[in-house]
Write a structure and sequence with these properties.
Rossmann fold; Elongation Factor Tu (Ef-tu), domain 3; SH3 type barrels; 6-stranded antiparallel beta barrel; alpha/beta; 17 strands; 5-stranded parallel sheet
């Protein structure tokens, strides 16, 4: 096949490129350039130079053509604006999910088609697998539970899933490193990026400060109403956050935000029995089957990583047009979720992703109503 390979200069996408080449496919590497120069004035050194240094060496060694694709406008319009808008509303965005959906496998595919570049498939170095059953495409977890990236791919559409290849999805990270050494890739020992896909080597707090600045407000103890200290703006904090608060006498946790008054409510008894957080609501659902699964006892991930909860899902009951539920949900695209544990970090805006065993069924956006704080 003729395959477009999304590459970053990292070892994962480089092994993906080499594996496809060894399988006899005609491959071309693409690097998506996403940051505007104005952004880099605020956020520091550009990470492209090191990425491209390694990527060009890999492509030279493999004799694979490389194209750098400018995607700055699309990225700013679709991802940066979304992230800023969500944070300003007090929610917890996930730009990585949106980037996969709208940029890597969205705008990039549209750009290829506009340029009359015809490829059979688009490949990436994600730790995920996809397969079709009865004409419907699903995702399957990677065998490496820590690296598995199906969470970040939950919002893909059927057209995208049908077009994508994940050449390393069946591997663990240790197995991939062995292959990188076997192939003698120039970046075989390069460390994994620890930042968000969205920010690369930039810190999210620096990004927020550059776009939203600082606005002094109060840390207030939830139970007593006592003012504890000052903060620099509600957008720097998320529900369940403990680290980075800079407060003594803790541990303190962020339990609620008042964005109108710029107040961060904190609690030192976040895990007490009367403050269980085991129920939430999910809207804007993207089920790969196109509808809610018949099986109601599933597993759910609330963030990237190996942790899942057993959960039950049910319909949202709307209590009249003027009710809070009716304002936030419709009958067709929302569910109520109850987990078999207690997760203090459930926050509006983050994604909940559902699984039946190893198979990812899709996901949606958390909307909390009537929580205990």
């Amino acid at each position: 096949m003729k395959i477009a390979v999304l590459t970053s200069g990292g070892v994962d996408s480089s092994v993906a490129l080499k594996l496809l080449q060894e399988q006899g496919h005609e491959v071309k590497a693409f690097y998506l350039k996403i940051w505007l120069e104005d952004e880099l004035q605020y956020l520091g050194d550009c990470p492209w130079e090191e990425d491209l240094f390694y990527l060009e060496k890999v492509c030279d060694d493999l004799k694979v053509p490389l194209e750098i694709v400018p995607m700055q406008k699309e990225y700013f319009d679709k991802i940066v604006n979304y992230t800023i808008a969500e944070v300003k509303q007090g929610r917890t965005p996930n730009p990585d999910v949106m980037c996969n959906n709208h940029i890597k496998f969205g705008a990039f595919l549209e750009k290829l088609e506009a340029d009359d570049q015809d490829f059979d498939k688009i490949a990436s170095g994600h730790y995920a697998q996809n397969f079709a059953k009865h004409g419907i495409y699903y995702l399957k977890k990677s065998p490496d539970p820590v690296k598995d990236q199906t969470y970040f791919l939950c919002n893909l559409w059927q057209k995208q899933l049908a077009k994508i290849l994940f050449p390393i999805g069946h591997l663990t990270k240790a197995e991939l490193r062995e292959l990188a050494r076997k192939f003698n890739l120039p970046n075989q020992d390069r460390k994994d990026s620890q930042g968000l896909c969205f920010l690369g080597k930039f810190k999210f707090k620096e990004f927020l400060k550059a776009h939203l600045g600082e606005k002094p407000g109060d840390f207030i103890e939830f139970e007593t109403g006592k003012k504890i200290s000052k903060h620099k703006g509600y957008w720097f904090y998320t529900i369940g956050q403990r680290d980075g608060l800079g407060l003594s006498g803790g541990p303190w946790y962020v339990v609620k935000k008042d964005i109108e008054k710029n107040i961060i409510f904190i609690s030192g008894s976040y895990h007490s029995e009367d403050k269980k957080r085991n129920e939430f609501y999910v809207s804007d659902l993207n089920w790969f089957e196109g509808q809610s699964p018949e099986k109601k006892n599933l597993e759910v991930k609330l963030r990237h990583g190996p942790k899942t909860y057993r959960c039950s899902i049910g319909s949202v009951i709307l209590e009249g047009e003027g009710s809070e539920r009716a304002q936030l949900f419709t009958k067709t695209d929302s569910i109520q979720v109850r987990i078999d544990g207690n997760d203090q970090g459930i926050a509006a805006g983050q994604f909940a992703v559902f699984y039946d065993g190893e198979v990812c069924l899709g996901g949606g956006i958390v909307k909390n109503i009537g929580d205990k704080f």
